[in-house]
Amino acid sequence: MRDPLSVVTDAFTSFLFGKVETTRLPVRTSTGQAQAVYLPTAAPGLGDSGVIIGREVYSGKGYIYDPFQLYGQQLPAPHWLVLGESGNGKSALEKTYVLRQLRFRDRQVVVLDAQGEDGAGEWNLIAQELGITPIRLDPRAALDRGIRLNPLDPAITTTGQLALLRTIIEVAMGHGLDERSGFALKVAHAYVNESIVERQPVLTDIVERLRHPEPESAEAMNVAIDDVRAWGLDVALVLDRLVDGDLRGMFDGPTTVGIDLDAPLIVFDLSHIDRNSIAMPILMAIVGVWLEHTWIRPDRKKRIFLVEEAWHIINSPFVAQLFQRLLKFGRRLGLSFVAVVHHLSDVVDGAAAKEAAAILKMASTRTIYAQKADEARATGRVLGLPRWAVEIIPTLTPGIAVWDVNGNVQVVKHLVTETERPLVFTDRAMTESSADLSDDALRAAEREAEERAAAFVEQHVGDSESTVA
């Protein structure tokens, strides 16, 4: 027990001069403060659930992304747009992303593989590694027991069939159907569906009915039978291309039996189709609608639909309308649509500007690889990117991209493991040039690129709130 005099003395001294003896307070800190000091150990900015993409160039933090985990909290829609010129790493990103997603048992992926070399699609190696046979759509092989997809497959609703037929015709004609041609198609389609019950109706049946309409159709409209035949003639000529023209064999018969829609990865190899021909958007429309009605089901699986050369979809108002519906319904069915495009100008300046804008709006995630300065500015205006991000895009080196996840903008270095490398780097030019560098030289070059990007971001970080005018 303390001396009473000492107690009184201490109390008086404290009153006059303040407390003499002080107690050392414990050191306390928050997780946020610790992360601010130790950036490389901070939690990833988008959370810690999903697939590893790489690391943020500026902070060094790991970058993890998963649209299914982020949907509803940080993402209004799970769809993703990937932009950039060839040779900058888009393909490697797509492939590693899919491989890493497939580690989750509840994930399924469909890829429309529109590129390739040596007679095989880009995804052929990955399919082989997973023990999967790509679905190769090839007009040359189709005549010899090749793969067929039937636009009139009974799995597709009659409304979906008619919408698909209209799209095929409108894409091929380059304009919408007039009311008379549309009526002729509708009547022919209804008659074929009602009269053919012993087998799958096919396009040949539609063409035959357009050329030889039923008299009852003309009587119902109080017009001559020759007029009804004339209304459907142009439609018949367009569909005839799929039946007896350069695309024959792929769509003019019953759907091939045995296509495994339960496989974790389904690859449609479109590499044998001329990418610049009218056949490609027609093909993508047919595959997209067929998948919508046969593959996407209201179960607990999460599905990813990745489309290379997606400008064929977004740049056609008729095909874009079909995919708009798919994207809207896909959100409640657990579908993430991934569109890979080289240049945004390919889609925003075309005839489908309105439809393209609607699809781009639904893509809450945008990844932009290196572009030329004028292209980067145009991209920034359309996507509403921060000014600093637009300025850094032309300086990006392969493997580094600007990621915009619903306004959360970061510069990210994509990381590829040694196991993934031989599967994802299928471009010979890229692999041969990389092979010429030693491992030390390659790592040094990567470090230099990352340091330049980090310095640029640090210099312009104050402008992160401003967007391109």
TrEMBL record:
SUPFAM superfamilies: P-loop containing nucleoside triphosphate hydrolases. Keywords: ATP-binding, Nucleotide-binding. InterPro entries: P-loop_NTPase (IPR027417), T4SS_component (IPR051162). One of its GO terms (molecular function) is ATP binding. The keyword Transcription does not apply. The keyword Nucleotide-binding applies. Gene3D superfamilies: 1.10.8.730, P-loop containing nucleotide triphosphate hydrolases. This is ATP-binding protein. It comes from Streptomyces marokkonensis.
